[in-house]
Amino acid sequence: MIQTKNMITAPRSMKLGFLTLSLLSIFVCQLVLAHGDEDHSKKPSAKATAKSNSTLTLTDASAAQRLADGSLFVPKIVQRQLVLRTMLSEVADLPQTIELNGKIIADPNAGGRVQASQSGRVEASSAGLPNLGQKVSKGQVLAYLRPVMTSLDRGNSQATLADLDAQLDIAARKVQRYEQLADALPKATVEAVRFEYEGLKKRKASVEASLSKSEALIAPVSGVISVANAVAGQVVDAKETLFEIIDPSRLMVEALAYDPVLTNDIAKASAKVGSADQSLALNFIGGGQQMREQAIPLLFKVNQVKGKDIAAAVGQPVKVILQTKKQFAGVALPNAAVIKLQGGESVVWIHTDAERFVQRKVKTQALDAQRTLILSAAAGGSSEIKTDERVVISGASLLTQVR
After folding, report:
1. How far is residue 118's CA from residue 236's CA, in Å, rounded to a whole number?
2. Which CATH superfamily is domain 76-106+248-400 in?
3. 20 to 30 Å CA-CA from 27: which of 42, 75, 355, 403?
4. Domain 112-246 fold
5. Cα separation of 316 and 302, whole Å?
6. Each residue of 337-385: pLDDT tens digit?
7. Which is it for strands 346-353 and 266-272: parallel, antiparallel or unpaired?
8. Which of 345, 337, 356 is closest to 397 using CA atoms?
9. Are the C-beta atoms of 254 and 302 separated by less than 8 Å?
């Protein structure tokens, strides 16, 4: 009996143990699946995904590092992120260049200036006063100038007008008498009296016009209004500039050279305008024979590209780059390939291996508005760049920031 009872009790205890373990496992699973009352049935938000991607990008970018020898280890994925571009170098004979300071000026044959010939008050025409940037044609009336006289000048003019009126009345009566006696008097005497009368009439008309007639201010050339200093009702002095007109398609550049011999050694010229990506092709016209500010002025004509406006303004300073007939051996690279360090040194980045970049100090010289000449060691450069070396031409400034 005892053995039978024990055999019956054992299975009940085992059932209770299994039941307890099942309840515990369910409770633990609920805690694990629903920690913090979060709903995992929904897809992750876009913000969370972007945060995860940014963390991954930062981790990948941090893989780029500077090695002990000063070179850089940059993985391929980082190179694509930095948008690095390279080009094969080629050593060639390139012209020596000289940089000069210059400025944009208007072509004197295609520009004009409207000035007040006397003191007066500005009056608008029927079309109104011209605005900046407005196109005008030669002979167009821009405004009117009504003369302004002092009280003394006006009194003298009115006195002269009264005297002319008196002389005109006398001359008119004289002509009337002479015409009545035309048969008894010589023909020349009668005609002289008539001419005197007509002359007095013209003098009177001139004096009256000086008191009331306005002077028309006319555009001397066709072009665009670049300066507008006139306001309706404004009183201006004689020789004061009211309008300036230029032709934006015909501009010139004036530069100052400190070497008189330079004028005989110019092969080609260009100018930097604003950023390094903007340039103007120039044609050398001539140089002055008299020093100005201890320098000789050189004049260049800007070549206009057909269908494109010249991205420059009159008076804008530019950097003129002259290519001389003397040549040096070197490598021509875009301006973006050369990096200036804090000490004033110029460096370029050479892509030596698939994921390795080496910094190299170079001696540079401007070749034109968009390119820089890297001088070779034979031409006085501090380091030589050989042919078929891969030089970074885009993203070089980002490589300098890797630590």
Report:
1. 8
2. Efflux pump adaptor protein, beta barrel domain (2.40.30.170)
3. 42
4. OB fold (Dihydrolipoamide Acetyltransferase, E2P) (2.40.50)
5. 13
6. 999 888 888 999 999 999 999 999 988 888 887 888 888 754 454 556 8
7. unpaired
8. 337
9. no
